[in-house]
């Protein structure tokens, strides 16, 4: 694949932005100055930031270097780390969605299901699967792995699971809290003020859970939107040798895919008030 100098420069810029943004997410989570961030969803989002950091620190710089230095081993390193990071992205978003669905479905009564030891197990399983998928590149021909790993072993199953989970999540958000409120009312008359307070409490809980679900959904939508063209194009050309895509178009699609790792920190910042508060507090404290 021909990589132009313009592509290489764009990759360097993306590497700087991606590394800075995702390092900021990880550092903010580590510091947690206001003691608001260390929740199960945020730990999983930190894992997502770590996989994006792999792209920014390793894949994107090496992809830029590939413009000047060609070699099979360099390409294999890029492919292995890239497949690992993208697979970890999909699997982490699946774990996030499953955690949200469990919390909403059980009204938070089974929080222990995702406590520390379960979280560690989930993260270990995510990285075991991600590394395992990527290592197949070193065992089988690269073209075979490219057309099977990301589309059929990572992207398609994860996307199907996520679609089903999100259908269930929004059904639960729409129905469960109204049902809980109705069932919580006593048979006798309830003072109007008490009814209003109960409605406000139910509305606040629903709004908070919906906001978290929207953040995860946005992360998923951006991931699928930006990486689907590359995965689809590579899969088609692998199965159809006569179907050619020029290098400029393929390089552009790959660059768009890498933008996902740079955009994710912005999604956290725009949709997470506790994250914005923590960053502001650290900046204010260092001033």
UniProtKB/TrEMBL annotation:
GO terms for biological process: G protein-coupled receptor signaling pathway. It is found in: Cell membrane. Residues 21-268 form the G-protein coupled receptors family 1 profile domain. CDD domains: 7tm_classA_rhodopsin-like. It is a multi-pass membrane protein. GO terms for molecular function: G protein-coupled adenosine receptor activity. It comes from the Eukaryota. One of its GO terms (cellular component) is plasma membrane. The chain crosses the membrane at residues 6-27, 48-66, 72-98, 119-139, 151-173, 216-236, 248-270. Pfam families: 7tm_1. Keywords: Cell membrane, G-protein coupled receptor, Glycoprotein, Membrane, Receptor, Transducer, Transmembrane, Transmembrane helix. InterPro entries: GPCR_Rhodpsn, GPCR_Rhodpsn_7TM. Belongs to the G-protein coupled receptor 1 family. This is G-protein coupled receptors family 1 profile domain-containing protein.
């Amino acid at each position: 694949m021909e990589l132009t100098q313009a592509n290489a420069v764009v990759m360097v810029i993306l590497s700087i932005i991606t590394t800075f943004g995702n390092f900021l997410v990880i550092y903010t989570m580590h510091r947690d100055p206001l003691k608001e961030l260390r929740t199960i969803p945020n730990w999983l989002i930190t894992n997502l930031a770590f996989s994006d950091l792999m792209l920014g620190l390793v894949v994107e710089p090496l992809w830029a270097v590939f413009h000047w230095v060609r070699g099979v081993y360099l390409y294999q390193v890029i492919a292995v780390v890239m497949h690992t990071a993208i697979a970890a992205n999909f699997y982490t978003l699946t774990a996030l969605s499953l955690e949200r669905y469990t919390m909403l479905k059980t009204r938070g009564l089974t929080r222990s299901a995702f406590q520390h030891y379960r979280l560690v197990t989930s993260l270990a399983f995510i990285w075991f699967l991600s590394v395992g998928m990527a290592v197949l590149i070193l065992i089988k021909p690269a073209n075979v792995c490219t057309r099977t790993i990301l589309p059929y072993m990572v992207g398609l199953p994860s996307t199907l699971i996520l679609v089903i989970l999100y259908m269930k999540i929004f059904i639960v958000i729409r129905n469960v809290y109204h049902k809980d409120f109705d069932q919580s009312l006593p048979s006798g008359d309830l003072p109007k003020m008490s009814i209003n307070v109960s409605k406000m409490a139910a509305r606040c809980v629903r709004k908070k859970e919906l906001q978290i679900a929207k953040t995860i959904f946005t992360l998923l939508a951006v991931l699928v939107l930006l990486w689907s063209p590359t995965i689809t194009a590579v899969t088609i050309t692998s199965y159809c040798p006569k179907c050619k895509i020029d290098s400029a178009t393929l390089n552009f699609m790959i660059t768009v895919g890498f933008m996902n790792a740079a955009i994710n920190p912005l999604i956290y910042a725009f949709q997470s008030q506790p994250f914005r508060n923590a960053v502001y507090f650290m900046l204010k404290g260092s001033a």
